[in-house]
Design brief:
single chain, mainly alpha, Helix Hairpins, 3 helices, globular, YqgQ-like, DUF910 family protein
């Protein structure tokens, strides 16, 4: 898992589609959804960690764009 698109595809497997309107907000909601999937043990630890790393990187990129 290397891109935000990959994370979106993972969420899509569980019929989770995120569109809030602002990219940084979408990333934050995706992170919350990932947390819920992980707590429910629906995704592996490996998938969870890779997806969170991607989201953290994308979140930092968006924060830099806003400054």
């Amino acid at each position: 898992m290397k891109t935000l698109y990959d994370v979106q595809q993972l969420l899509k497997k569980f019929d989770i589609y995120v569109y809030v309107g602002k990219r940084i907000w979408d990333i934050e909601v995706m992170a919350l959804e990932l947390d819920h999937l992980h707590e429910a043990k629906l995704i592996s630890q490996d998938e969870f960690l890779h997806a969170k790393m991607v989201l953290n990187r994308e979140h930092r990129v968006e924060e830099k764009k806003q400054k």
